[in-house]
Specification:
Largest sheet: 3 strands, antiparallel
Helix content: over 70%
Number of strands: 3
Structural class: mainly alpha
Oligomer: single chain
Strand order of the largest sheet: 1-2-3
Distance between the termini: 114 Å
Radius of gyration: 42 Å
Length: about 525
């Protein structure tokens, strides 16, 4: 045997020895086999659980949940049952939210809160101008909000959070879980302590996961349970749950949480050593949304009253202007199309009603009564052309506007230049944002045009009205300054000219008022 062969044998033997010890170490501490590694971790989990004082809840060797586990849940169920019944009977949490908010408010806030009631505001509006009410409500809303300082906000939010955690815990389905250990158990009946059987742990795995989430949440040491039980005493004349018993439950859960026993049980049952309970904080604020809603609701009440008053005023004015005259609606720029637009979540025609009134006023009044006055006073009257020109120009502009409104309305017909676009694009709006944008642009432009018609007509009517006022004043003067031949003009009118002018002036004044109720929105 030469030295080279001897060295080779020695090296081979050395590598074999190293491999043996490496495998031995790996078998003792860590395996490269994932399944073997999982088994090793599960054994460690079982061992760690055995070291806790809650090891008697679960038997790792047979993966069984023991009767002592069910007994813990039964004792908790017995304590929280009255609260569970209360919460189930009142599933709408808004009831409790409002009670908590009222509990935390000052006396002055509770008094102010009554001022925001719709019936109260409506009653006051019958005696006080709405503008004054709006100013007063704005001041009261500010005062109401300012009393929610940082201290009051924190108290309210913390109280609602503790309530939510208690409610979530009490609404856990203890009865459903306990029936798995004893099918004869009766819901919310605690006359005698039932016996429980051990069961396959997999049957309650999901129940335990759900319980841990609601249970561990109540162990937060920042929660003041004292405030919550004071709230229940004040609003429900009882604690709902005995404060001492609740503290015992919290202490028990805290002990289980600290020992990590339930998480160890879940990991072992699910054979998932990496399992972690998600304890994310999903607390909801109630003060800011409450203040926003109070403001929104109050403004809506005021807006509704304002619209009702405007509508009432508009109806009254229309009756004085048009009497029993039939109002002929426009054919295309109408409210009827708005219902179609709204279904498609599009913009709407904003001035269809006032534009309809304007068109009818131009047809039934300007083209008749004002034309008659124009023919008598402007055409036959002897007065300075520089004084009559503004009235003459305004009258001609109104006649022109009447024609323009007709053409505008025709353009919005289904076969019109604008209406055809709407008709073509309307079916595409559900899947084509471009179609929606084009229709909205047509509607915006149409509203702008309608508003322009109204504004220009109002301005021209005001010009005619001012001139009429001067003419009426001139008529009654012993010596006429503006129109020299009033007496001669009388023979061309079926009624006295002064009376005729005053009647027209009043109608113009009323119509301008009517248009202003729409323009001020």
């Amino acid at each position: 045997m030469n030295f080279q062969d001897t060295n080779t044998e020695d090296n081979t033997e050395k590598k074999q020895n190293e491999g043996f010890f490496a495998n031995l170490i790996a078998s003792l501490f860590k395996s490269n086999n994932p399944e073997a590694e999982k088994k090793r971790k599960l054994k460690i989990i079982a061992k760690n659980l055995s070291k806790t004082k809650f090891h008697n809840y679960y038997k790792p060797s047979t993966t069984e949940i023991m009767p002592s586990f069910a007994k813990l849940f039964y004792e908790i169920y017995k304590i929280i049952s009255p609260a569970q019944l209360l919460f189930k009977a009142n599933p709408n949490t808004n009831i409790f939210k409002n009670q908590i908010l009222n509990f935390c408010m000052s006396n002055s806030q509770l008094e102010l809160l009554e001022h925001f009631d719709e019936r109260k505001i409506t009653e006051v509006s019958k005696q006080v101008p709405l503008a004054n009410i709006k100013t007063k409500i704005e001041q009261e809303l500010m005062a109401f909000s300012n009393e929610f300082d940082m201290g009051r906000v924190n108290k309210t939010e913390n109280l609602y959070r503790s309530f939510s955690l208690l409610r979530d815990f009490c609404l856990y389905d203890f009865y459903f879980l306990l029936r798995k250990f004893n099918s004869s158990i009766q819901e919310n009946t605690f006359t005698s302590t039932p016996s429980f059987e051990k069961i396959n742990a997999e049957y309650i795995l999901d129940d335990l996961k759900d319980f841990v989430i609601v249970a561990y949440a109540i162990t937060d040491e920042s929660i003041s349970w004292t405030d919550l039980f004071e709230f229940f005493k004040s609003t429900h004349n009882s604690e709902i749950i005995s404060a001492n018993n609740w503290k015992k439950i919290v202490a028990k859960i805290k002990s289980i949480q600290t020992s990590n026993a339930f998480e160890l049980i879940i990991k072992h049952i699910s054979k998932d050593p990496k399992y972690r309970t998600d304890l994310s904080n999903n607390s909801t604020s109630i003060v800011e949304p409450f203040l926003d809603k109070i403001t929104e609701d109050t403004n809506e009440i005021l807006s509704k009253l304002e619209n009702a008053q405007k509508e009432s005023k508009a109806t009254s004015i229309c009756q004085q202007i048009f009497g029993n005259t039939n109002i002929e609606p426009l054919k295309n720029y109408t409210e009827a199309y708005n219902s179609i637009f709204q279904k498609k979540e599009l913009l709407t025609y904003d001035y269809s009603e006032p534009l309809t009134y304007l068109k009818n006023f131009l047809l039934n009044f300007v083209k008749k009564e004002i034309r008659e006055l124009f023919d008598i006073v402007v055409i036959r009257g002897q007065w300075d052309a520089s004084l009559s020109a503004p009235m003459s120009n305004a009258y001609q502009e109104l006649l022109k506007t009447s024609t323009e409104i007709t053409n505008f309305d025709i353009s919005l017909a289904e076969d019109g230049s604008l209406g055809s676009k709407i008709k073509t694009l309307l079916p595409k709006t559900n899947h084509d944002a471009g179609a929606e944008n084009i229709i909205n642009r047509v509607i915006i432009d149409s509203n702008d045009q309608a508003k322009t018609f109204i504004l220009s007509s109002v301005q021209n009517l005001i010009i005619i009205g001012k001139t009429l006022k001067q003419l009426i004043e001139d008529y009654v003067k012993p010596k006429h300054i503006i129109v020299q031949n009033w007496r001669e003009l009388e023979k061309f009118s079926e009624v006295p000219l002064k009376e005729f002018c005053v009647g027209i002036y009043k109608k113009i004044y009323l119509f301008v008022q009517l248009m202003q109720t729409y323009l001020s929105e």
